[in-house]
């Protein structure tokens, strides 16, 4: 059984680690006390001859590798570490010979002085071959290489880390000295605060008592962030394409996605975040939330046992050979949910033959389903994507902690998840510029929307980004009600949703009028001009629609027209759409909507037809669910498979509460009033109402089919005219197959309609 094999491997690693530790202790005792027996004397004399005064390094190295075997329980990087340890040891033994004259190097080594035989021979050969300066250079290079192999860390990363730490300490020291020597005038500070501009201050964990972690990532954001000073971010050049960085570390086996609701702990830092209130100044001072508001990922053992991958490679190659394809696996990329095997087809083999073997490959590898990408963009190989036996959850905190997310100056930075190779994917919504999301129920669509909004809340203040959230299902996004970023409460009524979209169109037109009067082309240039003139810039506006199908059922024409107008023109005005639906059918995602929203995300769908509707290609029907998605940004030839980030309901509530504590929402009154009028106002009269009543007076009975024949209109409009006349008392109620009774008299008809100019005009026609 797999569980039994896993236990045996762990026991084997522990036995090896205990053996190495015992051997290290015995060798150390033999060195310091040679009278422990024949074996001790032999070990001591041998090590003295070989390593001289550096013989103490051997038990230290053995103890190091023994502890590593015990705690990590993995041998994946042991050969690399051993090579590094050997190089560092040889360099250290050679350095011990520097104090010995060159003529006596070999003799001293044979006698056990300096670095013994190893150090003496190495130093003698290098000295005779390259001279003393060559020895210095070669040993320095070998020492760096050995440290790289031993620690598996980049020298550049270590230097940057030390540099940032040193710079932070120096800056804090200078500030303390400055505060000690100079005292600022409190009156002057008070006068300055009254006219101070809006400040965007990152609320970091350095300002919170009782939180011992999460400080390193902020120190990497630059000297200003590390010191906790206010930082202002302006929207600059767009980043191109997807950002990849840092290799993937697989989380614990069998972990549940609902970990955060069960294991989330309110630390003193989190309570300090929520209780902080902005200072009482004339302008709003917003603090961006820190990563400590997000629950920490469950860090598990790094599974680097390649036995399963080796067996799958063998099965895959044997399966292809059985169908007459002698292909070889050239590379394997393991991600959180999927492992991709890249195979090199032999000459003369069509790619379609390999694609047609998807079901046979899934059968041979005992996989629920297999997706084949043929070919992989930019490579002359075919990718076979096989689900992992255990899916590792990707947590939003892992993505938010990355340097690229923290240093991004863009307010609409989104953290989607990790790709097949385990590389985090961060992109910019403003570059897309609109996003269409589709997927079946339970595939991860709502969690994806929560992570998108949470990413915006980590990067922007209410002055920078505003939200218009439409949630007809009334359960998914209503949690964000009350945050100061909203221009109106979360819209849950489909009738109000159509009105809110019309307001967004008017807002777009208003912004373009501002651009035209100021002589600018887009919101970036306009805001730069406003800042130079000392005026307030316009915020970006993100419109998020959780379920498009519900809106299309209520008002399809109005909703489609508004979405198409916004998608066509709103990018330069700083308005962006995120549209989601669980029904990716052609009557919901129409051709006009697809043509104007180039960036798409597809979660698992039920059929290939739905996959083609959202992505214009198949493949989404083979996804696993639970956040497994295909992300196709604008300009990409093929979608990228991504395991979406997970954000629990508890984390959303904490983040929302953080923003609620800072400010009350400032709703746009025009949206609220117009939406209220839309629901409360009666239906407007049809322009054909007067003519329809006249027809019923002439015929003496009322029916829908009569209006259809005489007015040449459709069934829906004719039925609506009948309903209006019934509500006004012009015709009687429904009587089955009999025509309705006409209740209005000719005199009432003349008083009702001929006294109005518009009705007069309608009758004249």
From TrEMBL:
Bilayer disposition of the protein: Multi-pass membrane protein
Record has Transcription regulation as a keyword: no
Compartment(s): Cell membrane
PROSITE patterns: FTSK
Residue ranges occupied by any FtsK domain in the UniProt entry: 422-612
BP GO annotations: cell division; chromosome segregation
Transmembrane segments: 12-34, 80-100
GO molecular function, one term: ATP binding
Quaternary structure note: Homohexamer. Forms a ring that surrounds DNA.
Name recorded for this polypeptide: DNA translocase FtsK
Originating species: Desulfoscipio geothermicus DSM 3669
